């Protein structure tokens, strides 16, 4: 793939992303988009993003066999999931999950 094609893809993705975000701003500004109606769904967005980012990295690592799953990663994922449920956010569960992971790696679990 040459540089011109790559830049054209970047520009097309930028325009598409901007159009998607602008459409929500435009709908909200017209009053036809009721954000309160979708608030329950939007509250599930942060845990869904966290799960989408972390589960493939935990499950599908290296050769994706059960022998290759490390106890440190599974434990850190469980700690992160429990903290995400308790805090209802992403930042603190991610930080504390990473600390759990590095502590377990340091002590070679």
Feature tags:
109 residues, mainly alpha
Polypeptide structure, described:
InterPro entries: Brnchd-chn_aa_trnsp_AzlD. Pfam families: AzlD. The chain crosses the membrane at residues 6-29, 41-59, 71-104. With 109 residues, the protein is mainly α. It is built from five helices and no strands. It has helices spanning 3-30, 39-43, 45-59, 71-87, 91-106. α3 runs antiparallel to α4 and α4 (71-87) runs antiparallel to α5 (91-106). It is flat and about 55 Å long. The N and C termini lie far apart (44 Å). The mean pLDDT is 81.
Fold blueprint:
Elements: H1 3-30, H2 39-43, H3 45-59, H4 71-87, H5 91-106
Helix pairs in contact: 3-4, 4-5
Strand content: under 5%
Approximately how much helix is present in the residues?
A: over 70%
Q: Return the string of H and E elements.
A: HHHHH
| Beginning-to-end CA distance, first to last residue | 44 Å
Quaternary status:
single chain
Major sheet summary line:
none
Q: Overall 3D geometry?
A: flat
Q: Number of DSSP strands?
A: 0
Class of secondary structure makeup = mainly alpha
What's the overall average pLDDT, rounded? 81
The stretches of 5 or more residues where confidence is low (pLDDT under 50) are none
Count of helix runs? 5
Quick structural gist:
This protein has about 110 residues and is mainly alpha-helical. Helices cover about 75% and strands about 0% of the residues.
């Amino acid at each position: 793939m040459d540089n011109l094609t790559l830049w054209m893809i970047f520009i097309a993705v930028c325009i598409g992303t901007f159009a998607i975000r602008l459409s929500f701003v435009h709908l909200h500004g017209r009053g036809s988009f009721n954000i309160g109606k979708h608030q329950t769904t939007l509250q599930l967005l942060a845990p869904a993003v966290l799960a989408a980012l972390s589960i493939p990295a935990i499950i599908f690592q290296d050769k994706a066999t059960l022998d290759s799953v490390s106890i440190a990663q599974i434990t850190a994922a469980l700690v992160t999931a429990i903290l995400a449920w308790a805090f209802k956010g992403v930042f603190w569960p991610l930080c504390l999950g990473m600390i759990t992971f590095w502590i377990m790696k340091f002590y070679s679990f």
